[in-house]
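Human
Can I borrow your eye for a moment on a structure tokenisation matter? Give me a protein, with the fold worked out from its sequence. Write it directly below this note and I will take it from there.

Assistant
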Amino acid sequence: MGEQLLMELIAATGLPQELVTSELNALIKKAGLDPARLSLEDIRLILAEYVQDVLLAAKTEFASAANE
């Protein structure tokens, strides 16, 4: 169930699938989870971390651009 749910989520983003897949897989591995056994709650936690990572990267880039 986990992999199917993850694939549907990735497809629904409209973002480049290879990029999103590799980033989410890295977060899943970091969390020590098995992609085949992901629950909806696991995916929520992974997505929350993903959003935090993206926002932190955007904040860093914005601060860097403002200092130039």
User: Anything to note?
Assistant: The helical segments are 2-13, 17-30, 40-66. Residues 40-66 form the longest helix (27 residues).
